[in-house]
Automatic annotation (TrEMBL):
It comes from the Bacteria. Keywords: Oxidoreductase. PANTHER family: DEHYDROGENASES, SHORT CHAIN (PTHR24321), SHORT-CHAIN TYPE DEHYDROGENASE_REDUCTASE BLR2146-RELATED (PTHR24321:SF14). Belongs to the short-chain dehydrogenases/reductases (SDR) family. Residues 13-186 form the Ketoreductase domain. It holds the Pfam family adh_short_C2. The keyword Kinase does not apply. This is SDR family oxidoreductase. InterPro entries: KR_dom, NAD(P)-bd_dom_sf, Sc_DH/Rdtase_CS, SDR_fam. It comes from Pseudonocardia ailaonensis.
Amino acid sequence: MTDNGPAGGMIGKVAVVTGGGGALGGATATLLAARGASVVVADWNLESAETRAKAIVAAGGTAVAVGGDVADDDAVERIFSTATEAFGGVDIFHNNAAAVHLARSDGPVADLTDEVWDGTMDIGLRGAFLCCRTVIPLMIARGGGAIVNTSSIQALIGDTWVPAYSAAKAGLLSLTRSIATQYGRQGIRCNAVCPGLIPGVRTEPDMLERILRRQPVGRSGRPEDIAEAVAFLASDAAGFITGQALVVDGGLTGHMPTYGDPVTSPLDAPAAR
């Protein structure tokens, strides 16, 4: 199964992926294993984590599964102790867990409930902090490591929906920069990926159509697109990159709002005389 790939081989590395039973985390876990890493697939849904880990092993990779809610201190300790006991430590951490199950209840600020706000922050930001606080000493003990946080383009621009999710992801960008600054001289790099829309079971067809009309790359994003970005940032090929946010959105945030509107776009208007 080993595929050293353009981002560099990861043979001998140990990786932990939270939210590893889902689409994005699962794609990353699979790719890191294919490039030679031993992977701990962590997810609040143990069955999903086990399914992904078994698929990795069946393909010739090395993986174990562990269940746990990243918002719970004991569960976080269990996730990383599993990595230490199974593989001897941690070199790569993909901090990917998010409260996606709350997204449909995340709406206008004036109508947002405490439950949705707190639940989103508990998993998306507090959980990320707990994991980083736990893994940093483990990485320092091995001479360093790479943390890649999954943020979002929602952290970069305003939108009409998911303000709690957006705020949590924006906080994650600040945490990324703080970790990169505080622990860089101890061998730890910390970066973030900011995915655009990656269609899934919760994606409404009309939303997807509107996004694609405004996205220069003329296709939907795939979990593998994000996995490739994470694998690059976690690899030695990105050894001089830290404290950064890599946007992976098909160009969605790289243009003016007039793009994709055939009525108002200056590209489609008659030439000025």
